[in-house]
Specification:
The complex is a heterodimer. Chain A has 16 helices and no strands. Chain A is mainly alpha-helical. Chain A has one domain. In chain A, helix 2 runs antiparallel to helix 9 and helix 10 packs antiparallel against helix 11. The model of chain A has no long low-confidence stretch (mean pLDDT 94). In chain B, strands 1-2-4-3 form a four-stranded mixed beta sheet, covered by helices on one side. Chain B is globular, with a radius of gyration of 11 Å. Chain B is an alpha+beta fold. The model of chain B has no long low-confidence stretch (mean pLDDT 92). In chain B, helix 1 links the parallel strand 1 and strand 2. The chains are: A mainly alpha, B alpha+beta. The interface between A and B is medium-sized, with 36 and 29 residues.
């Protein structure tokens, strides 16, 4: 370093920190650790983390605004806790994508958009049965000791297998679809990328300002959820944290990294959640509503198949959308519409009674037995994933 | 890396997760050891996924380069 003054040192230090945080992709496990901590904050602040309710609120509100739906949703999007959290994740991901100069409108072929719409519709219908997506039913379900989180694993694994088989059939049987080719940068045109970092800083300043606005209107709880969402968006984008990989990679490449990350993250979530629930900081059955049986297994199969076609789960769709992925945006519209319609249909025909009931594991097994069983489950899953990575026993092609 | 003789080019521009990795894996399976595959992609996630996959399997990851036309070129030895 040539400049040995304090300012010179600080400048170099900030430059290095910027490169570490925004230019290099974070290790996946680090994203898992941060997510475990952040979801516990969301749980303590309000309710166990989920995302689907926010999407449904948006689409039902949109339906009301464009006069397709006669009745307005009971809560407006800006006061809906899940909607505020989701908006935060998108804002955080946009800020992160700009600061790392990775924001890019990504167009896809007609076939890819079709797969996005189909995948989104399957996922939205599945979620209406499971009571949550991979974030709300698998991750939060297991994290808050709801047995439905585990039964969803079975369904999603089957669904991921079916989805991969479908995609493989497409690759082997259909001619390649015509992809839109990125246009060359015009000579003399304005280089937007050069101001992306400044725009990213502006986005994060805006996020902080939003928190103050909520606080000013006595809605600090919603503002806090939005801010936690912003941090989640940053973490998920920088580490490319996506639950789909837990189920897809062991079948596609054998890679065990995301299984290990999910188990690490869930260990943090479950331990913190045990502290919160066992000491009644929050009611012990809070967040336990995932039906054990047809709901989580059948819904999981639909969700798992759809997520392979869309290329994202509902929570990672938020940060991929913030990165400019148009296939995901199209798929999310389909997801939200299908979810709203399926939920209304299931309620109208009283079908939820057939989907199963929720089970709070410690109520059946006691806390003393539940916690060691959790540890055994995570260790067993990681060992199985590592063995599969080496042997490729479950890899389907 | 421009002096490397490329045996096959795989154009994956416009495809998003999981298609770039899936197609790369499938292509590599059909190549003989020592042949070089050049992959063109626009998916940001592939910049981590493809090298990670290649390095874990019995292939060799040679290089990754963002080209001016707005996509990324990967060179992989099967």
């Amino acid at each position: 370093m040539d400049d040995t003054t304090f300012l010179g040192f600080a400048k170099e230090d900030i430059k290095n920190a910027y490169s570490t945080v925004f230019e290099n992709t974070w290790p996946l496990w680090l994203g898992g650790v941060f997510m475990g901590i952040l979801v516990l904050m969301v749980f303590l602040w309000n309710f166990p983390w989920g995302v689907t309710g926010g999407y449904r609120n948006w689409i039902e509100w949109l339906g009301y605004v464009v006069k397709i739906k006669g009745e307005a949703p009971p809560i407006t999007p800006w006061l809906h806790p899940v909607s505020a959290g989701n908006a935060g994740i998108i804002i955080g991901a946009i800020g992160s994508a700009l600061l790392s100069r990775q924001f890019k409108w990504q167009l896809a072929s007609g076939r890819e958009y079709f797969k996005g719409i189909l995948g989104g519709a399957l996922m939205g219908t599945g979620v209406a049965m499971t009571g949550g997506c991979l974030g709300g039913a698998f991750y939060s379900g297991i994290g808050v000791f709801s047995l439905g989180g585990f039964t969803m694993v079975i369904g999603v694994m089957i669904g991921a297998y079916l989805g991969l088989r479908l995609v493989l059939w497409e690759v082997e049987s259909l001619p390649p679809s015509k992809q839109p080719i990125p246009s060359e940068k015009k000579e003399g045109g304005f280089d937007w990328k050069s101001i992306y970092p400044a725009m990213g800083v502006a986005v994060f300043l805006l996020a902080i300002a939003i928190m103050y606005v909520y606080s000013y209107f006595d809605e600090v709880k919603i503002g806090g959820l939005c801010l936690l969402g912003v941090i989640m968006g940053l973490v998920m984008h920088r580490s490319r944290f996506c639950f789909v990989r837990v189920f897809r990679c062991p079948l596609m490449t054998g890679d065990a990294e995301m299984v290990k990350t999910a188990c690490l993250s869930l260990t943090i979530y479950a331990l913190g959640s045990a502290v919160i629930k066992w000491s009644y900081l929050q009611p012990d059955t809070m967040g336990v509503y995932h039906p054990v049986g047809l709901g989580t297994i059948g819904g999981g199969i639909l969700f798992g198949t759809g997520m392979i076609l869309l290329g994202s789960c509902a929570s990672s769709a938020l940060w991929r959308m913030g990165e400019g992925n148009t296939k995901i945006i199209v798929g999310l519209f389909s997801f939200s519409i299908a979810n709203s319609i399926a939920r209304t249909f299931f309620m109208k025909w009283d079908l939820y009674q057939y989907f199963g009931s929720s089970i709070f594991i410690p109520e059946v097994l006691s806390w003393h037995l539940t916690l060691p069983l959790y540890a055994l489950f995570f260790v067993g899953w990681v060992l199985l994933a590592n063995w599969n990575e080496e042997s490729e026993k479950f890899v389907i092609f | 890396m421009s002096d490397v003789a490329v045996d096959k080019v795989l154009d994956l521009r416009g495809l998003t997760c999981p298609m770039p990795l899936l197609k790369t894996k499938k292509e590599l399976k059909g190549m003989t050891p020592g042949q070089v595959l050049e992959v063109w992609g626009t998916d940001e996630g592939s910049k981590k996924d493809i090298p990670d996959f290649v390095n874990k399997k019995k292939h060799e990851f040679l290089s990754l380069e963002d080209v001016a036309e707005g996509y990324t070129k990967y060179l992989i030895k099967a």
